[in-house]
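Minutes, project check-in
Item: structure for the 134-residue chain
Input as provided by the requester:
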Amino acid sequence: MNPFFVISLLFGLALGQTASLCAPSEYIIHVEKKECAYCLAINTTICAGFCMTRDSNGKKLLLRSALSQNVCTYKEMFYRTALIPGCPHHTIPYYSYPVAVSCKCGKCNTDYSDCIHEKVRTNYCTKPQKLCNM
């Protein structure tokens, strides 16, 4: 094999792993409770982007756990809590949400991530909107 081809192939594989476009991204979460008068629009950061994955040709020979794909997920995060305005006294008016500090390509952890993208669900308000900038 040509040495230039081998070096180019190795460089391409290494660059593919480092060029994954998984990073914190600005996102607006819309939160409303049935009992409260307003919908809260919260500016935060989430992990979003592309992660390099490989589809194995030997799917029937591998364990199911070996076939999971990498996703863009949290490496470091913290939670903030916002107050939803216009809630009656008997309702808990707080909403906690994650803020991404850094991201990584890895397995999706259902302890703190929603690993299924639901296309039916939309992110909008049905009540008057208040903006939360923290």
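Outcome recorded: Confidence is low (pLDDT under 50) at residues 8-13.
No further action items on this chain.
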